[in-house]
Design brief:
By secondary structure, the chain is α/β, with parallel strands linked by helices. The chain has a single domain, classed as Rossmann fold (3-Layer(aba) Sandwich), CATH 3.40.50.2300. The chain has 6 helices and 5 strands. A 5-stranded parallel β-sheet has the order 2-1-3-4-5, with helices on both faces. Helix 3 packs parallel to helix 4. The radius of gyration is 14 Å and the shape is globular. Keywords: Phosphoprotein, Two-component regulatory system. Pfam families: Response_reg. InterPro entries: Bact_response_regulator, CheY-like_superfamily, Sig_transdc_resp-reg_receiver.
Length: about 150
């Protein structure tokens, strides 16, 4: 990735925004973590859908970024489970995929995804997607955690 684009971004564009990154690729998790941490985000990572569901209740992310193609529980299935939970139904979910077909994007919409980024993505694309939902995600953080967030 071009580091000159990172320098032009506001280093604290999203102070305190909680982002859950779900991807089986360590490289994608590290890249997104690095970019978003520099922008002031608080990051939690998960290696697959099951790991994400185990962490989401305690972390209470403002935004979730999920890869579609993962072992065990894919991004579509994970998104659908998150969106069917009352506590997280309004939490924006951004899907990541190397596929860019209209079918894949439509399937993402069906399960409740808020946006869709195609890999490889630029820092501008990532920041743009986060920026579109940062204010709506902050509302989810203000919800009382009294509702159960169990996904089992």
């Amino acid at each position: 990735m071009d580091n000159s684009n990172e320098r032009s971004s506001d280093p604290l564009a999203f102070p305190g925004l909680k982002v859950l990154i779900v991807d089986d690729s360590k490289t994608i998790r590290r890249t997104a973590d690095s970019l978003l941490s520099k922008a002031g985000c608080v990051i939690e990572s998960a290696v697959d859908g099951f790991d994400a569901l185990a962490k989401i209740g305690d972390f209470s992310p403002d935004i979730v970024i999920i890869d579609i193609l993962m072992p065990r529980l894919d991004g579509y299935q994970t998104t659908a489970i998150i969106k069917h939970n009352a506590r997280f139904s309004e939490t924006p979910v951004i899907l990541l995929s190397s596929k860019d077909s209209i079918f894949d994007k439509a399937r993402g919409n069906i399960v409740g995804a808020s946006d869709y980024l195609t890999k490889p993505f630029t820092s501008e694309e990532l920041f743009g997607a986060i920026g579109r939902f940062a204010s709506s995600g902050a509302k989810a953080d203000q919800q009382a955690p009294s509702e159960s967030s169990d996904f089992a």
